[in-house]
Amino acid sequence: MAIPFIDLKAQFARLEPAIRRRMDAVLAHGQYIMGPEVRELEEKLAAFAGTRFCLSCSSGTDALLLPLLAWDIKPGDAVLTTAFTFYATAEVIALLGATPVFVDIDPKTFNMDPAGLERAVEALEKKDPSIHPLPAGYEKLTPRAVIPVDLFGLCADYAAIAAVAEKHGLLVLEDGAQAFGGSIEGRRACSYGHAGATSFFPAKPLGAYGDGGAVFTDDEELYARLVSLRVHGQGTGDNKYENVAVGINGRLDSLQAAVLLPKLEAFPLELELRQAAAERYTELLSDVVRTPHVPAGYFSAWAQYTLRTEKREAVIAHLREQGIPTMVYYRIPMHLQPVFNHLGYKTGDLPVCEAASHDVVSLPMHPYIEEPVVRQIADAVRASLA
Questions:
Q1: Is residue 101 part of a domain?
Q2: Based on the domain organization, do 144 and 70 belong to the same domain?
Q3: Is the pTM value of this prediction over 0.90?
Q4: Among residues 79, 101, 280, 386, which one has the fewest Cβ atoms lying within 10 Å of its Cβ?
């Protein structure tokens, strides 16, 4: 039998009665968009993350876009982010006409290098690309915000990033799409920065049965603006057709909230199960490949279990022959994506993420992967490297 990369069916088999009850309740009351389940979910998500406010929305991409809209990010603004991430992180910057300025990563965690961030901001302020590679048109850019990414389930170094941001007056938007449930010294992902965003794409650690996302913040004024922007810039009066800003249609469907509520109840146990699977992978593989690094005090949500090996293509080919799927996140760093050719970045500008793009490979990972399957996959990896 083929091994799934992420086994949503195994999860559904365990949660089916609770999920069906919740979905049936939505079908009975008929409030399919922004129904009572949505508000209940937002309250429980905020409590889980440890923030004052949570605003659900229609996707992880919209969760990144909404705070940038609220902060009036616009043409002429520079938003700094990692080059080793999913396209949406940089896409939302470009959607608003702002310019992404890409920063290299830490070779162990794959997350933004705070020292690189400091150099990039300094280069922008001094208009000096000899300090750090800058995009075309840098002379006219003003640094406004930074979007660190919590890659593969592991939070970025927010103490160091926040110090840089505060020094230079930058807004911080945590991209926690892959790390909801992760933490640093007990403080959970999406509670860092001025706002945090996550995704409920089905493959995420906490996934819906369709698209969905959420924004987290402690800032009441920002939250009020997000509420408006989520529904076409709606005003606060009784007239729902009063519009005070240009927003988006970013609402979460009640059926997705109905799916997420029982999943959130099971989430703490699932995080423990992911941790156990990751520890077993590491035990079986750390002597033959570079296994994931989790700094002291950090807890990963293990959205992916990602190895590094110069023999990646041989590993992928051998595992495919054994019916074992793999994924590569990401073969093309953001600064080398064709869509950003006009920015003028070139190979060699960000060498750490470029190296990672050539040797990372992710193995099957989900809460319900069983120990014999983990061992089977690890044995196949070892055989591919023999």
A1: yes
A2: yes
A3: yes
A4: 386
Q: Among candidates 48, 299, 303, which has minimal Cα distance to 183?
A: 299
Question: Both tokens of residue 27?
Answer: 């079908």
Task: Say if residue 330 is in the same domain as residue 251.
Answer: no
Does residue 54 lie in a domain region? yes
Q: Is 337 a domain residue?
A: yes
Note whether 213 and 58 are within 8 A (CB).
yes
Q: How far apart are CA 254 and CA 354, in angstroms?
A: 41
Q: What would the two tokens of residue 143 be? A: 């640094």
Specify if 82 maps to a domain. yes
- Residue 312 sits in the same domain as residue 240: no
Residue-level pLDDT, tens digit, the chain, 386 residues: 689 999 999 999 999 999 999 999 999 999 999 999 999 999 999 999 999 999 999 999 999 999 999 999 999 999 999 999 999 999 999 999 999 999 999 999 999 999 999 999 999 999 999 999 999 999 999 999 999 999 999 999 999 999 999 999 999 999 999 999 999 999 999 999 999 999 999 999 999 999 999 999 999 999 999 999 999 999 987 777 888 999 999 999 999 999 999 999 999 999 999 999 999 999 999 999 999 999 999 999 999 999 999 999 999 999 999 999 999 999 999 999 999 999 999 999 999 999 999 999 999 999 999 999 999 999 999 999 98
What is the tally of structural domains in the chain?
2
Indicate if 120 and 192 belong to the same structural domain: yes
Same domain, 92 and 27: yes
Tokens encoding 29: 């009351």
The rounded distance, in Å, linking the Cα atoms of 246 and 271 is: 38
